[in-house]
Amino acid sequence: MAYDIRLVKLVGGDMVLGKWNAEREVLQDPAVLQTLPTAQGGVQMLLLPFGYPFDTEIEGEIDGRHIIYHYKSVPEELKTKYLEASSNLTLATPGSLDLSGLGGKVTDFGKIIK
To answer: How many structural domains compose the chain?
Structure first.
């Protein structure tokens, strides 16, 4: 199932990532996106459950009337990190699978199982 992952800004100023339910106009399983400055002068992004520190799971929902802005695009890497955090699964990207040990024969699944 493909989710409509949205990055939004709430009326309180929080940047939140979640699964948009257009039918009910709610953002489900919200996670707050925080930026932290690094020693090298850049920023690091941190995804936390919206109710952190009291809620440790990414769950719940935010009514659409509390959203003042929907960002046009969300970087794919951020979507992947969100889905990993909200589902407790690690998602593989096309370039992250090393099949070199198969000698180029991707259909030889017997070598993978051994």
So the answer is: 1
